[in-house]
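Lay summary

Proteins are chains of building blocks that fold into shapes. Our project writes down both the chain and a compact code for its shape. Here are two examples, one after the other.
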Amino acid sequence: IAKGAGVAHGLLFHHFGNKRGIYLAAMREVAAQMDAAFVVDPTLAPAELLRQAFAAHLRYLAGHRGLALRCVLRSGGADPEAWEVFQSARSRALGAAAGVLGIDPANPAWTMMGRAVVAAIDEASVYWLDNEDRFDVDVMVECFVTIVISALRGAHALDASVNIDAAIEALTAR
């Protein structure tokens, strides 16, 4: 790694401490790249904003297939500290989605259903990557939107104070 980076071996360990420090720094960089890939034009209507974010997410995963399958989507806690890096990124994405949809990101019903959305999207993404992009990105995006709408309905079933009408209308208006 030091040779590839063009730095002295000692400098690498001075900066990162050990191999684990290098690994965790790499995982944080991947999470930052995924966050950046998920950022789209905030002036868009919610429906288009989320669709573009989902499409960007899928393109990032497809462009980093091996990494996505081994470290991001399938790691499932094999390394709790690295897994937490990606869980934090998922929480940021859920909070942003809630904000776009006008849902309180701290509402426990949304938090639970949002986690279900993340799990469903992760699993669908694994299948998509494992099957040579069997489905077009645009079709996958529409499936993800359907998952979000179902989660909104689930959040409302758990807590009737979660106003989902505007969010669903925003997602279905095109």
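And here is the second example, written the same way.
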Amino acid sequence: MPFFQYRKLFKNEKIVVGCDISAGMNNYCVAQFLSKTGLDVPLVFREKIIGTEMTTKLYPVLEKICDKTGREPLVAYERNNGGDRDIEVLAHLNRHRKYRIYEMKTFGNIEEKNPTKLGWDTNSATRPIMLTALKDAIDNHLIRIYDKTT
């Protein structure tokens, strides 16, 4: 079972989903469902599959979260390792508009027509910021993580 649920979701709960996809090679796809309302991680997806498989398993769960909470979850896919392709698939599957996809601001190209792009880029500039913020949240007990593997 790739989904691990640690508590029930409640009405009006705001969920943000961080997704790290695998390109295969015996690696895991992982999605962490962070509750901005409950300040915890009530749901985790983890499975040794490729990103496209995770996307097809994830989107119906995103729709159920919207139905249960009454709010559209925000999904942030990592663009690396083919994630940009899977983000496009996830966007296409969102026919009922039951979830939103994170848009990262782009910088440095004045000819860029769209100042954002779908998903999150993990690179030498963003990785330390992301990991420092996560470490601070964990060290200061600002979020509750139930999943031992996480």
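What can we say about the second shape? The longest helix spans residues 51-69.
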